[in-house]
Design brief:
With 382 residues, this protein is α/β, with parallel strands linked by helices. It has 14 helices and 15 strands. It is globular and about 55 Å long. Bound molecules: 4'-deoxy-4'-aminopyridoxal-5'-phosphate and glutamine. It holds the Pfam family Aminotran_1_2.
Length: 382
Amino acid sequence: LVPRLQPFTSTIFAEMTALAVRHDAVNLGQGFPDTDGPAGMLDAAKNALFGGANQYPPGPGRPELRAAIARHRLRYGTDYDPDTEILVTAGATEAIAASLLALTQAGDEVIVIEPYYDSYAAAVAMAGAERRVVGLVERDGRFALDIEDLRAAVTERTRAILINSPHNPTGTVFTRAELEAVAALCVTHDLIAITDEVYEHLVFDDAEHFPLATLPGMRERTVSISSAGKTFNCTGWKIGWVCASPELVAAVKAAKQFITFVSGGPLQPAVAHALDHELPWVEDLRTSLQDKRDRLAAGLAEAGFAVRPTAGTYFICVDVRPLGFEDAAELAWELPERVGVAAVPVKVFTDHPEEWKHLLRFAFCKRNEVIDEAVTRLRKLR
Ligand code: PMP
Ligand code: GLN
């Protein structure tokens, strides 16, 4: 393995899920739902499978899916041309990797917000670029973006900034003011923004998702990325997409076409159906996830953890110190065997493990009885 990929030999999700399976643990580690997406979407996939949609789709994605993505994006007031400004990818993961491969290279710096989704660091490394990490700070009861820290991270080598909101793993949803500050920096320093919006529909209470691309000066410099997995409970389908200017989409496509070329042929029309017709189903998902968040948060508090607030995504972070633990990773490794629950330590998503070592992430995209069983088991930690 080449040196630049040596830090990335395994993922925490694969490791924790394997450990959960070994100990028959309730898996609140890897974030994936335990129920299916809308029946209409599954039917559409079945019809496509039996209707002959089983060969290569067009390189940029099936036209009806690109049109549906464009219509969906209009909800934010941004208009993308399905022919030149939208690209279907193998999940958001490929979109992120292809964007970094296409737009950054050795000598470039990419600003990444910490804690960061694990594929960001690996994809920056594959591109040969360097990550420059800016940590979220706990402020006013949430994990906030410190604009001064962000400003200080920009150098003459900065080429791009990766922004994930709603944010995995903290559950933070960036405010309009935070995003405006990011936008101002991008415009001033002529940076490309790559936004990971896979949890765009999973926002709670009065939180609202603002795509960075909607802010002045950002439409032409932002690669907006999302995916069907989280919105329609189909994480295994790996249908994602990029919305950006024709120049940026052409660049991302140049990389993407030699990674997978295309993927998910019969699933693409089903996701098109879902984007056009299943948003009421997504609204029900959102409300049920908000209840699950409250259910798990209450249970984790009862079990003795200090629970951090979650405004979006399907993750909750807790501080393990009130239970007498110092390092959440040590706890995470023994938790499946000790009480039969799996969770993910936040420090693995950072370059500063000491600062983040007390936080543990739990996923709540599970049936209520599964959440309740996990809580019952976690109570034994006291
Ligand atoms: N970004 C974030 C923040 C995620 O949590 C995930 C995984 N769920 C992804 C990207 C990957 O999305 P996909 O499965 O569509 O590749
Ligand atoms: N995005 C999911 C999570 O954060 C897992 C994705 C994966 O397994 N790579 O839990």
